[in-house]
Design a protein that fits this description.
The complex is a heterodimer of chains A (250) and B (315).
Chain A (H helix, E strand, L loop, with lengths): L1 H16 L1 H27 L6 H6 L2 H25 L1 H6 L5 H33 L8 H27 L4 H24 L5 H8 L3 H10 L4 H23 L5
Helix pairs in contact in A: 1-2, 1-6, 2-4, 2-6, 4-6, 4-7, 4-8, 6-7, 6-11, 7-8, 7-10, 7-11, 8-9
Chain B lengths: L1 E10 L2 E11 L4 E5 L6 H8 L7 E6 L2 E2 L4 H7 E4 L11 H11 L4 H14 L15 H13 L5 E5 L7 H12 L6 E6 L2 H7 L2 E6 L2 E6 L1 H7 L5 E7 L2 H10 L3 E8 L4 E8 L6 H11 L2 E8 L3 H9 L3 H4 L1
Parallel strand pairs in B: 3-8, 3-9, 6-7, 7-8
Antiparallel strand pairs in B: 1-2, 1-4, 4-5, 9-10, 11-13, 11-14, 12-13
The chains are: A mainly alpha (250), B alpha/beta (315).
Chain lengths: 250, 315
């Protein structure tokens, strides 16, 4: 257990010891801030009854961050260690493959959550200066962050898997971005196929990340969605573990 | 400490290690010597549990490296080729991190890190960022990392590659000082290095062990081919007669050198040292002697001879 914490601490520190971590945070802050400026300007001329978080999740920026941040955060995790050779020094210490995967994923997830903190500041400004106390209501904020956490965990696990099977960071990033976009588009496929195809529609509807996120941002926590995200995340982490172990099969 | 039996490693379509067996005793410093691509690194990676063997067994301290990998990894300190480190970390921070990974507790890791930093001469750079250190210092960080948990077996893959002569010397001294307390396995393709540090050498070529012995024995093995060269001012026929009569000489060759001198190349029987006999002979006959040397096959020759690709393979 202490090895797991040691590893997770180093992985997390690595984000902040290089400039990449700060660049990611700065970019996200810019995008979140920008979308809030646009959003508030629009609300000023065209009032809506939905919570601010619900309108925010629908913006282009939100999904851009989700789709791009995952690959950028996770591409380093395994691919960099493999290309620089430190993977060899790491795996020849008495650490288990499971601890390595778990620690790297935890570090990525913690960094991802830190990256989203500026959103809280934006919500605070809305509630404080726009006389809109609902913006910081515990239900919507909690739901939104739970949604961000679950979607993020899924995309980060995808990224971990991509990084574990790649030799270079660039391949890892491209691969996980492709996987992420595919997953994201699956939900829209449900709307595209004819309604006569019964079971296909119901299977694909589980992949409706867009719709599920709308519920979360309203403060509605649908257990089906929660279980869907958690199981898919665990599935990809399991694949990552297998990929790390695979060097022993050859 | 290490028992390797019939170890084979095949990569897709290429055999890197072809059925080698050897054993290394506790406290020995053993050199794994061979040209690039001979299978040194592969053997070391298998020993450290990073790669699985295709067939054969490897036991370290009595544990199987594949089935009891964690027990083995607890007992080895491995420095891979090119000494990969995390360039963004500071020296002390990195060593502490590695000590913790290797299962040392909070207090123990602090004490051990201070000890190995002292041992490897890193104390004055302990707060520096690894990426900004010179290659010599980085190499020492790698060595300190291999030593930090006081492993029974230390495996160093090309520990002196890319260092300047002074740095090489200090790294060699450090490695030599480990003898007795630790078992050390070093790979290198530089022969004098192995000659200086190791108590035993394994010469590896194309995945096979070609020779395994102490540096002295390897030299003696090849000493049969050594020659004595003497340049003597005397008639050639007379010299030939004298050499033919000496029982210690197996073979001789007399050729004209400049002036009145003749160059004699004498091959002794059983590595016998002919020099004093040749000197006495020249004195008795009143011949002028201007050169008397024994050419010894150095390990370099043995190495070149043993690892030279055979004719058919070159075609």
């Amino acid at each position: 257990m202490s090895i797991y914490f040691t590893l997770a601490r180093r992985e997390l520190a690595a984000f902040f010891l290089s400039v990449t971590g700060y660049v990611i945070i700065a970019a996200v802050t810019l995008l979140v801030g920008l979308s809030f400026v646009v959003l508030l300007t629009n609300l000023g001329t065209d009032p809506q009854s939905a919570p601010v978080t619900e309108i925010f999740y629908g913006t282009f920026c939100f999904w851009l961050i989700i789709l791009v941040a995952g690959p950028v955060i996770t591409m380093r995790l395994f691919a960099l260690e493999k290309s620089s050779g430190t993977f060899e020094t790491l795996m020849t210490t008495p650490v288990s493959d499971f601890a390595v995967v778990a620690a790297k994923f935890t570090a990525a997830l913690v960094f991802y959550l830190v990256m989203w903190l500026p959103l809280l500041a934006c919500l605070f400004f809305v509630s404080h200066f726009a006389n809109e106390p609902g913006a910081l209501a515990p239900g919507t904020v909690g739901g939104t962050f739970l949604g961000i956490l679950l979607v993020g965990a899924l995309f980060l696990s995808l990224g971990c898997f991509a990084s574990a099977i790649s030799r270079t960071q660039m391949t890892a990033a491209i691969l996980s971005f492709m996987l992420g976009v595919t997953l994201f588009s699956l939900g829209f496929l449900a709307a595209a196929i004819p309604a006569t195809a019964q079971w296909q529609t119901s299977v694909l509807s589980f992949f409706g990340l867009f719709g599920q996120m709308r519920d979360f941002s309203r403060g509605v926590v649908d257990t089906r969605a929660v279980i869907f995200y958690l199981s898919l995340t665990l599935f990809f982490l399991f694949l990552t573990l297998r990929a790390v172990e695979s060097r022993r099969w050859k | 400490m290490i028992e390797v039996t019939d170890l084979t490693k095949r990569y897709a379509g290429r055999t890197a290690v072809a059925g080698i067996s050897f054993a290394v005793g506790r406290g020995e410093i053993v050199g794994l010597l061979g040209p690039n691509g001979a299978g040194k690194s592969t053997t070391m990676r298998i020993l450290s549990g990073f790669l699985p063997a295709t067939s054969g067994t490897v036991r370290v301290a009595g544990y199987d490296v594949f089935y009891e990998s964690e027990e083995v990894r607890r007992r080895i300190g491995f420095m891979p080729e090119n000494n990969p480190l995390y360039p963004e970390m500071r020296v002390r921070e990195y060593l502490k991190f590695r000590a913790r990974l290797k299962g040392l507790g909070w207090g123990a890791s602090r004490a051990r890190v201070d000890t190995v930093m002292e041992q490897c001469g890193l104390t004055e750079v302990r707060r520096r960022i690894i990426g900004q250190l010179s290659k010599g210092y980085r190499q020492r960080v790698g060595l300190a990392d291999a030593l930090v948990h006081e492993p029974e077996l230390i495996i160093l893959d090309e520990p002196t590659i890319g260092l300047d002569p002074n740095q090489i010397r200090s790294v060699r001294q450090l490695i030599k000082s480990l003898a007795g307390k630790h078992t050390v396995l070093i790979s290198t393709h530089i022969l004098p290095e192995a000659e200086m540090m190791c108590s035993r050498m394994l010469i590896l070529y194309e995945g096979k062990i070609l020779a395994a012995d102490t540096p002295e024995n390897l030299q003696r093995l090849m000493a049969g081919g050594s020659q004595v060269i003497a340049e003597i001012a005397a008639p050639a026929e007379e010299l030939r007669k004298v050499w033919a009569e000496m029982p210690e000489i197996e073979q001789y060759d007399v050729s004209a050198a400049e002036g009145e001198f003749q160059r004699c190349a004498l091959t002794p029987r059983d590595g016998y040292d002919l020099r004093s006999a040749v000197y006495n002979l020249a004195r008795e006959h009143g011949w002028k002697l201007r050169e008397l040397t024994r050419s010894r096959h150095s390990l370099e020759d043995i190495y070149v001879q043993v690892t030279k690709p055979s004719e058919e393979e070159e075609i």
